[in-house]
Structures are given as structure tokens and as C-alpha cells.
Predict the structure.
Amino acid sequence: MSELVTALDDYRRRRDDFVWEVPRAFNFARDVVDRFAADPARPATLYRDAQGSETSITFAEMSNRIHRFAGLLEALDVGRGERVIVLLPRIPEWQVATVGTLASGAVAVPTSMAVLSPRDIQHRVNHSEASVVVATPDAVPMLDQLRPEIPSVKHFLVVVNPGEIAPPGWIDFNAAVAAATPSTGCDTLTTDPALVFYTSGTTGKPKAVLHNHTYTYTGTRQASIWHGIRPTDRFWPTTGWAKAAFGPWSVGAEIVIVNSAFNPAEELALLESLAPDVFCAPPTQYRLMVKHGMDGVKLPKLRQCVAAGEPLNPEVIRAWKAATGVTIRDGYGQSEAGLLIANLAGLPERTGSMGLPVPGYHVAVIDEHGTELGPQTPGDLAVKYPAPGLFMEYWKNPEATANCKRGDWYLTGDRASYDDEGFYWFVGRADDVIITGPLRIGPFEVESLLVEHPAVVEAAAVAHPDADLGHVIKAFVVVRPGVKADDSLIASLRAKFDGGDEYKMPALFEFVPDLPKTPTGKVKRAELRGRNPT
């Protein structure tokens, strides 16, 4: 207990003494990548392709390709502030195109097409009025068909495999980069627009989150105080744009990129063979790896594990630590705000908690009037403006921008509480909280109990209309292969709520093959709420 008290005292001193020192001008390519490129042998990226071949790329090589891509954009007459949609999977060209766009002074729009329809892509291109699209060959037929509907795009670049020829009307990305004259880049201010992220919202069309270059400057905070990355580390993040460049490279670490679909057995094997010092994955992947079984897994180099995207179940954290000796430290951030709360490196982890607010951000739980609430009182999770790393606005959507503010607070859209020692606890999305009779129940409370059952792979809880209570809890459940989804299983699942959690017990169960998710792996509970009763 004294260790916790000492650690919390140290944290509070750091939090209270922290002062941002944001420079007036900053460009990630020049001020980060080029700086580490001074060491010609320093590794930047370890890439493993879909066939299992591995390639190591140094910071010097990355710097050269990034500045050549910036030069290519200049040669194509892509001006400062124009948008470049980077429609690529997890390949090194994503890093080249995204950071190269920032170097040129244009605005990068990282977009994954893995779970996006042509309509989704069309919306993003047209909303951003992108001048350039960078894609892979599998996206070419769709984009060619969309050309009449996306008139802003002047240049189509494709990352083809070595020896292949770019389709008609497309520019061979790597050939054009290799032939381009390197650009020294553009002098950008930290207040200049840099990135647009399309949020994986659960309702309506995605919103465009506009960030300036300060966002990339704050990446080092996430890497050092949450991930716990050291300059000589190898870091493997399996998801997340910021983690694929801005955070790890800010401290000079090597990033692992694996371009293959998730498979729990394969991921565990890769953790052994790739031997990262630090690993970051969404909760779903940790759950499935634990469900698969961790017997015999040897990870002697693994020092830090973190998770983000949605809360991670305490049972999974305990099982992972029992198998690896490493505690998964949960963290909380958003496309709009970066990392805000985390179980910080070097501090005792509180299993099941979101963690402590990151020094440099005034995070609070507030009521409908913007008043800060005390411990043990659920409310709206908010961050006080101004703060480096917070988004500029929902681009072209002033109504949404206004709706996420309450006085000088930014509303995250999540509900939370904090305990007497300052650790924050997730309650649920503000629009996902289930109100049944007089009770307000966070869906995570229900889901956390369900996924502890050995037959359950994933679960999602939503509100279901009820004539007497207004709403009851309905659970959508994905079971392991070979498990029979019948009344006996439902009875067994309900037994998980015995002993004080009866009020969280779902009134209805529906077994489904999978759960609908956003591109970042969050469950689309709004879509589940809209399904017809079964």
C-alpha cells in the first residue's frame, strides 16, 4: 500500500508541475524522422508481408522516401493544405505517404478500406475534396468505377508489387517516388492543418476530425509515458494510425508492421518470432489469444503490453499476466483527442480501470451544467480546452463541433467515474448507457461478465424496448466453434450474474456469428439496437 501511495504522490507532482512547451513551428518529417536519420543504421520499420517475408527499413531510407514523396506531390502541383487520401493497409508505403504528405504541407487523410464500402470511400473523398488518392491494386476496380463520382481527385497512385505494371490511368507509387526529386519540405506551424481522421462513429455518417501539427508533436507523450517505449525498443502495434508512426518514431523506436489478417494462433507465434519489447493490441485480440490458449508461449523480451479502443476485461488481464508475466495496461484516447487517460508506465496498474489522466490534460467527470463531480459519481467524461493534441474542429460540421462542447469543456461522449485515489472507470458511451427502470447500466459491465464464460468469444449488450421498464438488457453473443447455442447455454450464461450482479443480467439473448464493428474495432452497438427482436 505504501508503494501505491508513493507512486501516486510522484504522479501528482508530475501532473501538477507539467507545462507544455509546444514550438511555434513543427513538422514530423523534418523534426523527428530526419533527426533520427542522422544515424544511417538506425532501424525505423520492420515489415512482414502477407507471404511472411521480412524487410528492415532504416530511418535514413524512410527519410529519403518521405522527402521524395513530398517532391512528387510538388511535381504534381499538389498545393499546401490540399488533401491526400492514403487508402492503404499496414504497409511501409502508408508511413511514406502519410508523413510525406505532412512534409509537403498538404493534409493527410489516413483511411482504411478494409471494412469500407464504395459508398463509404466516396463520402470520404468527396467530403475531404481530396486531390490525390493512394491505394493498392485491389482497390483499383472500385475507384475506377467511382471516378465520375469523385471529381476532386486529380491523381491516382497505386502501390503495385515489384515487377507488376500500374493499371491505365494510375501512377506507380514506388516508381514515381524513386524517380522524384527530394523536397526539403514545407515549413509548417503547429497550428497549421495536418491530418483528417474520419471517426468510426456508431450513428450517421462519420465525422471528419481535423488536427493540426501539434497532434503529431504530442506523440512522444503517448509513446513514453503510456507505452513505456525506450529509444532502442522494437514496438508492435496491431492497430491505430498514431501508433504506426507518430508515437514510436518520436522516441526513435523501431515499429513492426504485419500485413496479414488477425489470427490468434499466428499472432502468438509472431510475438515469439518478431520479439517486440512493447506490444499494443485492441482488447478483442487479447481476448481471442487468451481464449485460444497461452500454454507454452515464451516471450522473454516482452516488457510492456498496452490495450486501447474499448475497455479490457479484468479476467483477460489476469490470464495474460499469468501466461506472460506482463500486465496489460489499459489506456483511453480518441481520434479527437489522442491519449487522455492511461495506466501509465512505472505506476501500479489498477485492473479494470482506465487509469489516471495524462499530465498536461485537465480531465474531469462533469454534470449537465459543466460542474466537476466528486469521486464515485458517474457523469460525462470531459477535457478542458485548450490543450495540445485536441482536434481543431469537426471539419465542415459546425453543429457537431458545437454539440461536443459544454462551456470550456470538450465532451468525449463517454461516461465515467473516478475513485478516491483518482483512477478513472469506464461506464459506457453516453448514448449506450442502458436505462432499465430506475437503473443505469453500462454495457461493458454486462459484457465483461459474459466474456468470462469459456464458451463465449465476444458479447455486446444493448437496450431493448420493454413495455414495463422502458428498456431491458439484450445480449448479442458470439460463441466458440462447436458450442451449441441453446437454453442450457443461456442458463449457464445467466449464472455468471449470480452473487450480486443479478440486476445486470440480460433479459434476452441472441446468438450471432459475429458483431458489427467500426474500422478501429469498436462494436457498433447502435446497429445492434436497431435489429428486429428475435
